[in-house]
Amino acid sequence: MDRNHFVCPRCGNSDPRYIGYRNNKPYCRKCIAFSGRKAEEIEHNRNIYLKLDYQLSELQREVSQRVLENYIANRDSLIKAITGAGKTELVYATMEYALKKKQNVGFAIPRRDVVIDLFPRIKSAFPNARVTYVIGEHSKVLTGDIILLTTHQLYRYRSYFDLLIVDEIDAFPYKGNDLLNKFLLDSVRGNMILLSATPSKEDLEKISQRGKIFEVNARYHHHPLPVPQFKRANISILFTCVKFLKKFLNDNKPVLIFCPTIDLCLKLYSKLKIFFPNGSIVHSEEKHRNLRVAMFKKRELKYLVTTSILERGITIDNLQVIVCFADHPLYDSSALIQIAGRVGRKVSHPNGKVIFIGEYINDSIRTCIEEITRTNTKAHMQNLLQ
Checking phi first, is residue 136 left (phi over 0); if not, alpha (psi -120 to 50) or beta? Predict the structure, then answer.
């Protein structure tokens, strides 16, 4: 066999560096970790309906209808919606349409924590649908009327989804991962709806070739996004952080403190807990992070020091945000925009503070502030036209 011409039938890899041989037969090392049961077709319940306990804004209803019409026309969609716009609600009408047609509906997200957080929301919106979620340690049941899953699990669903919604297309670990992108494209036999607050130019160009782009610049409650304030750490990062954290806690406001790495989180929290004992730390290697986030939501914890693991998918009323080491190379403008978007998401407290602490303003910080300011201007004009 010519070892230079093997192409993996599953992921398309032909790079000899990722091809191994067992009993002189080739196998692909690039996708070998993606092995397991595949989903089978099931009979769907046709009597599925959408039930919301709240009203969508006029803009949400308009975009929702246009996305539905685009899906009926057999075209893909990309919804470019600012953080806090209520972009999940923009796909509910299309999901309901597909479900009534007994079509296979999936909702894929790069991060497992966000999948888990979204599950009760989808179940509440479609109360008589069988909703299942599929992540690494939760994959015994692969089918349902609505399947929530991480992008890592898409390999189980080859040519399966009539409607696949993909949220956070700009998020790690999906972003820039050719293998996951291949699994995603292979899983769709119908059309996709992509969701993002910060899509790349490449994403926008690709979708414009085969579908439509819908832009939502206003939050559902019509208040602007909080514009981050940069504070130079003249004495130290810790000193400046303590100053703002003390003020927020004195005002009885919950606080998320972001650091770019686990090591910096641990070092900062070891100091902060001396002055402020009622807090905790959350990162990818922390086994009890879901419990700590739940305690934070219940106000049993006053603040959390966290990595970018909480930059998406978390909504806390009256939240304030501090970003330490905001000028760190790991923070690009998209990450900073996502972090800033945690603030002011609830109509009860639509405003709040976002504090960037660093030694200097770099291009990422500058672009983030400029983009949020520009989006607020667009949103203001959009609101005037309503």
Answer: alpha
Q: How much is the pLDDT for 1?
A: 44
Rounded CA gap, 132 and 153, in Å?
13
Coil, helix or strand at residue 355: strand
CB 350 within 8 A of CB 223: yes
Beta bridge pairs of residue 10:
none
Structure tokens at 65: 């209808």
> What residues contact residue 28 under an 8 Å CB cut-off, 6+ apart?
8, 10, 11, 13, 18, 19, 20
Amino acid at 113: D
262-275 and 237-250 are packed helices; what angle lies between their axes, rounded to 10 degrees?
60
pLDDT value at residue 83: 87
Task: Give the count of beta carbons closer than 10 Å to the beta carbon of residue 384.
Answer: 7
CA-only gyration radius of the chain, Å: 22
Cβ atoms of 193 and 222 within 8 Å: the answer is no
State how far the alpha carbon of 228 is from the alpha carbons of 103, 268, 382, in Å. 43, 21, 22
The amino acid that residue 371 corresponds to is: E
Instruction: Tell me 308's DSSP state.
Output: G
- Strand bridging mode 188-196 / 303-306: unpaired
Distance CA 83, CA 104 (A): 28
Buried b (16+ CB within 10 A) or exposed e, 195-214: bbbbbeeebeeebeeebbeb
E-strand spans in 155-299? Answer: 161-167, 188-196, 211-216, 229-232, 255-258, 279-282
Q: Cα–Cα distance between 357 and 364 in angstroms, integer?
A: 13
- What are the tens digits of pLDDT across the range 312-366? 878 899 999 999 999 999 999 999 999 999 999 998 999 999 999 999 999 999 9
- Of the candidates 172, 132, 170, which has an alpha carbon nearest to the alpha carbon of residue 152? 172
Q: Which domains does the chain have, with CATH numbers?
A: 1-32 (no CATH), 58-216 (3.40.50.300), 229-286+297-384 (3.40.50.300)
> Would you say 320 and 342 are in contact if contact means Cβ atoms under 8 Å apart?
no
Q: Whole-angstrom Cα distance, residue 25 to residue 20? A: 8
